[in-house]
Amino acid sequence: MAGALRDFFRKRRSLVEPVGTEFRSAVNHLEDFVLRGGKRVRPTFAWAGWLGAGGHVDAPGTHNVLAACASLELIQACALIHDDIIDNSRTRRGFPTLHVEFARQHRDKGWGGDPEAFGEAAGILIGDLALAWADDMFHGSEIGTDARQRALPVWAAMRTEVLGGQLLDIVVEASGDGSHGSALKINRFKTAAYTVERPLHLGAAIAGADDALISAFRTFGADIGIAFQLRDDLLGVFGDPATTGKPSGDDLRAGKRTALLAYALESADASRPGAAATLRSAVGTDLSEADVDSLRSLIISLGAVARVEKQIADLTDRALTALHASSASSGTKDALHAMALAVTRRTY
Amino acid sequence: MAGALRDFFRKRRSLVEPVGTEFRSAVNHLEDFVLRGGKRVRPTFAWAGWLGAGGHVDAPGTHNVLAACASLELIQACALIHDDIIDNSRTRRGFPTLHVEFARQHRDKGWGGDPEAFGEAAGILIGDLALAWADDMFHGSEIGTDARQRALPVWAAMRTEVLGGQLLDIVVEASGDGSHGSALKINRFKTAAYTVERPLHLGAAIAGADDALISAFRTFGADIGIAFQLRDDLLGVFGDPATTGKPSGDDLRAGKRTALLAYALESADASRPGAAATLRSAVGTDLSEADVDSLRSLIISLGAVARVEKQIADLTDRALTALHASSASSGTKDALHAMALAVTRRTY
């Protein structure tokens, strides 16, 4: 994947050079961002979808499919760079976020105007570039006219769904909509469709999978994707900082509207109004370690953790059943089974 | 053009509906923004490029070419929505800018958090959606495999160049780089390539134009595009508010780094240091009408206006010479000639 991405950036140089050093520097930051990191989850699922639907690694043109799958990393670069502006995040993958880095450059050089505004402007434009280049890389990948035709609606759906999920997310956060229905809908579109379901679907469509296999992959992807987000929600409250890389209980301080919190509030509203009031007033504030600890106990005692764990287990079971009943190649079944457990397992 | 865009938005409904009312509302705002307005300059040039290279309005598949050209309006929607965030602009096309509109909704509904931050987040995401949908509309336009193959590198260059030009623009503004070389480079990539040269090139590539015609269109487009921006720079200082819709002398108050200002500073530095100091200290501040008037006289007396007018005339001449020497169809030559004069003529 990294090779395909490096190759794409190399080929872009002839477009970038004429605009000059300022643009080249911005592009270098984007390339570093893309190559440095992440777990390549989306390309890996897309690749698995292709292999599982009959793709062969030693067939001619395999490198074109690899490039099409790798282009998902550029969508993800846009999503992260723009999300970090929206969430005002300071670090990402162990480095300053892009807009923070450009604000620093502005400050170091003693330029005019507001460094933060400059950083955000640069982040918006570099994110846009990543999104445009994702399309260029995908559509330029020469996977063949038929494969491209089959993949086109999946590609369109994936990008629309993740942006729809993100928009829903900011509205739900602002409006304080604490329902578990909204939380699960955000999980569905912002995480599951974008991270697992559509990448698998995309790879399978490129390989020319039949409807039954695509349907199985989509069921697997949607269920595992939601389970993955539910596990992430648990980690955001109960995770070990050494594992998550984030301060313990960070989601509680940030007031993130997760299904976990929704379940806790629903349970409290039904039977323990005092606990509901405590939760509502505490979440989203600057909590001490002791506050976080007592909120954790409260959330557990309200049965919310058990409910989420049960949901993760049910979703994973359903996903694995759909996978194993499908016509996917056996090597891919094993690989997807392992990935499903890896992204949903309890690690705290 | 509006019909093709309306059609595209209609077909997107099946993707938008499942995400829910919040997303549908955001998409409706985008659709209103795209359909409401603008002069459709880029699709018109792309269409002219196609016609000029042998496209026929009554040929089968013409509506597909129209859709491919109309997709440029979605790129422009992203560019404007994100630019308005970057420039902190309050109004656009006679309406509140998108981020201002979403901040208002946030405020009206009494939601939590900062209304301005919410507005910006919504604007970033809706701009991203416009950019992703531009690609979907273009690549879904069924112009044929060969035409698509020819158009692909032009499409890629256009989006890369405009983002490169915008990045250069924010760096030049922040760094206070007052050289006319930088100003002209921004004109070249942010305006000329994106507005005239590449749209013409795109249409011609779809039609299968030969290298000589493409070269002529690109010369015409680059020259007229730069001349158009130079005229816009003059209007930003000398324009009648009734015509431009902006306060008189707005570019002087905003401190915009135009070629006009660069020429004035270069001339002053060479012969009138006092005038140079006056210009540097005044530009970018909250100027009175009288201040603006005296800066105008100063800029004229430094010969900067005459230099820009000469450059516009030279560029227009060169562009028209290339156009008329080309193999473009005669109807298109007439249309492009008229458009060239319309976008570069003196109107104040």
TrEMBL record, chains A, B:
Keyword terms: Magnesium, Metal-binding, Transferase
Cofactor: Mg(2+)
The keyword Magnesium belongs to this UniProt entry's keyword annotation: yes
CDD domains listed in its UniProt record: Trans_IPPS_HT
Gene Ontology MF terms in the entry: metal ion binding; prenyltransferase activity
Keyword Metal-binding: yes
Pathway assigned in UniProt: Isoprenoid biosynthesis
Gene Ontology terms: biological process: isoprenoid biosynthetic process
Alphabetized Pfam families for the sequence: polyprenyl_synt (PF00348)
Family statement drawn from the similarity comment of this UniProt entry: Belongs to the FPP/GGPP synthase family.
PANTHER family to which the protein is assigned, alphabetical: GERANYLGERANYL PYROPHOSPHATE SYNTHASE, SHORT CHAIN ISOPRENYL DIPHOSPHATE SYNTHASE
UniProt-recorded name of the protein: Putative geranylgeranyl pyrophosphate synthase
Organism for this UniProt entry: Hoyosella subflava (strain DSM 45089 / JCM 17490 / NBRC 109087 / DQS3-9A1) (Amycolicicoccus subflavus)
